[in-house]
Amino acid sequence: MKITLKLFASLARHLPAEVRSQHRIDLEIGPGTTVLDLIRHQGIPADQCAIVLVDGVWVAAAERATRVLSEGEVLAIWPPVAGG
């Protein structure tokens, strides 16, 4: 099944170079793939996934191992924000 992965700020480096400027890629995933499965498969450090949304709905860190992705969903991830 196909989902869209969006990675922002410093996490964009985990996307193929040709799509980094778009901050998104469409991926084929297997049934039963969880948010955490996809994070790990893409090589994204889980501790760098501060804000995680599926179709605009926040997914808490405790739910990422059990939240199964479905056809057509959009997984968007932002790193921790720093500022001053």
From TrEMBL:
Pfam families: ThiS. InterPro entries: Beta-grasp_dom_sf, Mopterin_synth/thiamin_S_b, ThiS/MoaD-like. Coiled coil: none annotated. This is MoaD/ThiS family protein.
